[in-house]
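Hi P.,

Sorry for the delay on this. The queue was packed all week, but I finally got your sequence through. Input first:
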Amino acid sequence: MEYEAVIGLEVHVQLGTKTKLFTRVPYAYGAEPNTLTNSVVLGLPGALPVMNLQAIRDSIRVGLIFNCQIPEICKWDRKHYFYPDMPKNYQISQYDKPICQGGEVEIELPGSARNIMGKHRMVKLTRIHLEEDVGKLTHIGNESLVDYNRAGTPLIEIVTEPDMHNADEVFAFLKSLRMHLLYAGISDCDMEKGQMRCDANISVRPKGERKLGTKVELKNLNSISGVCNGVSFEIKRQIESLESGQRILQETRRWDAEGGITISMRSKEMAHDYRYFPDPDLMPVKISKEWRESIRAEQPELPFIKQERFFQQYDLPYSVTSVICPDKELSDYFEEAVSLYNQPKMIANFIVNELLRELSVAGTNGSLPLAESKVKPHHLASLAKLVDQSVISSQIAKEVFNEIFKTGQNPEKIVEDKDLKQNTDTSAIEKLCADAINNNPKAVAEFKSGKDNAINAIKGQVMKASQGKANPKIIDEILRKLLA
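Then the structure:
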């Protein structure tokens, strides 16, 4: 029997507000344990929550990005459970009236090759609700330590429909979700810092069956690759269990990355286990149409829309747009350079082939941030102009770029100081071409037999002899004249 998997995700994302959801206590990753707390965070008697308006606004922004319905009224509920990371023994969340309902996330599946665009499709969302985050437990041997610095931080939970069927779709969804949230400045989405966390609900069923199989929730997924690996293993485990006649239990399992397996934790809680009821200390929030539309007007151009515009406006290939467009900072950098000198393809190639390579090498822990690079948009615009006006060759431009990256000097000064201007003296170039023809009889024979590309080997010898200063167009013209 053939089986298919059905997957839904619950993604928790910390909002990038300066303060926590119900108090003015700030939040900062890496602070000394239990220093970012107060009576509201710890749930002490008499402490009352006060709503963070920016958290409401950011949640609406997320809903608008993903085409959610933003209802006029959302309210707050207490979700009860007893665990050391929640000092009140309940979490303030949203149950039956969340801030965002429905919606969809556009994803791109892998293409047949890296430079070919894959198929785009929508993954449906059930809801997005706003809640307070919990503290962090650290387990050491038989003891556990708790840090409440994270407790009370604004957290959105993005819940999908059971609308994915394999690890590739899960990867594409998380990648797209993170990209959109970064674009809008909603969160840094750093999974290592707990700013983005994911649980996966997985079931399998016979292919063609409409009824869902028994759902297993998978936790402890702390990276996008970890989510995909855990999902792949769990799909395989469930299919093997069914084929051997075993019954799938509704349970919560954790992903053991070291062992590459999932391990049973507990039976899955149902909604009634949490004893939801409206929070008596918080009034419902009314979201007017005028407020919603004013937020919509401030939304940035989103990455897939920008990519389509780059195809049309700049005639850039997918291999370039797929690198530049997912990064808002990088795409803004590109457009600033193009606004200074209109050579989009050349500037894009400098960014993709030179800048990103150097940034990746220069960083101590990962790539050097673009903001710290000495190469600014005006440098790339000037460099493109020098190549476009045949002042320097594209080969020399790489040498000039490396010098800009090291020093931050303007390319015109580097060219002048190092005497890198292109040689357009046709008589000198003709002598170099004649020498190259005499020294490359094999390439000459191949060219004369009809292999036009063979001329490139001779061109390379001329460029080498001129130390990259000879004009490539003039070289090509003279070589073809001499070879004829």
